[in-house]
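Hi L.,

You mentioned the student needs an example of a multi-chain input paired with its predicted structure. This one should do, with 586 residues in total across all chains.
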Amino acid sequence: MSTHHAPSHSEASSQSSDPVGRKGKIGVRVVGRPDSLEQRVYLPEVIRGLGVTAKHFFANLFSRKYTVTVEYPEQKLKYPERNRGLHRLMLRDDGHVRCVACMLCPTVCPAHCITIVPEETGNKSEKRPRIFEIDELRCVVCGLCVEACPCDAIRMDSGVHAPAVDYRGDAIQTKIDMLKRGTQSVATQGGVGADWREKQPTVKQYDPPK
Amino acid sequence: MTDSILMFLAEHTAVAALLKLVLLVLGFVMPLASLSTWAERRQSAMMQDRLGPNRASIGPVKLWGILHFVADAIKMMFKEDVVPAKVDRFLFALAPVMAIAPVLITFAVIPFGPDLCVGQVMSVVTDPAMCKATIPLQVARMDVGMLFYFALASLAVYGTTLAGWASYNKWSLLGGLRASSQMMSYEVCMGLSLMGVFLVYGSLEPNAIVAAQGSSILNWGIFTQPLAFILFFTAAIAETKRAPFDLPEGEPELIGYFVEYSGMRFGIFFLAEFIETIFLAAVVTTVFLGGWQIPGLDSSGFGSFHLPHLVVVLLQVVVWSLKILFLCWLQLLIRWTLPRFRPDQLMRLGWKQLLPLSLLNIIVTAAVVLWRSGGK
Ligand code: SF4
Ligand code: SF4
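Structure written out for the whole complex:
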């Protein structure tokens, strides 16, 4: 012990101007080696430590004074607004799936966990997904699919997190599962028309500074 | 009817010993050990401002999660028992047995109550020495009691070392080596620190030590031998291989001598650790906390307030178990408060601090005892 605490003397004296032992600008607190006999005997400090833990033990035992545990299924914390939960597929005004099977989300998905099989809708200008599955065990919850979607068809704001499953297959979310969480999108049905640029309020001509 | 049964037991000591052993081990030690597995998790949680396991239930019966120990036991028993390919199968199977058997056997020397006066259970007994027939509430009364305990306790090191050696795994081997060096170092100090107590009470026999401490609290070992109490408690905690002396296990880096064990074989090591804790509590109770003695209570009752013999004995057995419960709680508190030692700090504490102090304790105690007895 004697060899170990030798350097601490110089350290202790260099910071003697600061009574709390704060040193430097970022507030690192330099704690010296145990120097006093009381600390080196170890026992009084042990008893003090036991006092701290015993205090917490009894306070938590009788009144849960310091207990911070959230008992999950009964108590739930509110998720932050931008929390990414299980995916959901949004609905059109008539209740059909908004997705047009454009394949942007499976393309961008870094985990390759989105499977879409498109089908004809009868409407010549549109497709829709016949199969839309996301393997939640492979999903890395990056949210890129939501970013990529051009028609607000897929979202992760369901507030539901991926449940524990017994079999891996059970973690695959099907189209029906995701549609059940879906709601009508606030985006204008069918877009605002091909001439949306012209319809924008005219802005002042760009005038570069000279 | 009761009297004739007690008489039979007083005459047939072997039957009585068997009965007491079963009662003590199956009725007290094993339930307490399995409860400790839950208590440890729950208590550590409370100390760390968490809640801990509180959910296991049978239907609506929840009991603060006490049933977790049942769930744990079922889990242990139904888990796959993996035996790695290159282990020494015989030693691998022997090690858990070697770890748990000594600690269970040593309970034989612990007195859990005073001698029961057969035939006078309902009357007031003023002088237990006048009893015609007695049943000692201790499985084996041997003059070498505490030596027997030391001899058997040192066998426990075989369990850990064999487990480390037989596993054919370098981490278990390291854990086993750490265990053997640690247990051997601290055994020295354990033995020497109790020497002072033997000098003061003049006996190696646990029940005689308890009887000598009497019902006056100032005559208990913790007051006559305070230094020995601290030394023994420290060394004995090191002997149980639990934090702050859990180097053989070393959860973050080694996982310990039992890293290759699974299922109930691991469960046995786990249980052995808790039984050692209870046993340590029992020894400390016996030697330092007056065993089954209650302050102010002698064999006829509290002073002039007389109580029937049976009530006195029952009270004393209950208080004995309460003392053990308290010490188990204290050990859990220590285990979850103090950080682990480095191996060199461990050796320094054992050989350079505890050992000289225990030698000093013997010398001073011997001198005082000699001076008190007038040099005879
Ligand atoms: S969140 Fe990321 S990983 Fe998950 S499905 Fe969307 S793009 Fe793929
Ligand atoms: S990006 Fe949107 S519209 Fe395109 S396939 Fe994915 S969910 Fe459907």
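You could point out the following to them. Chain B has one domain: 83-372. Residues 169 and 189 of chain B are 31 Å apart (CA to CA).

Best wishes,
N.
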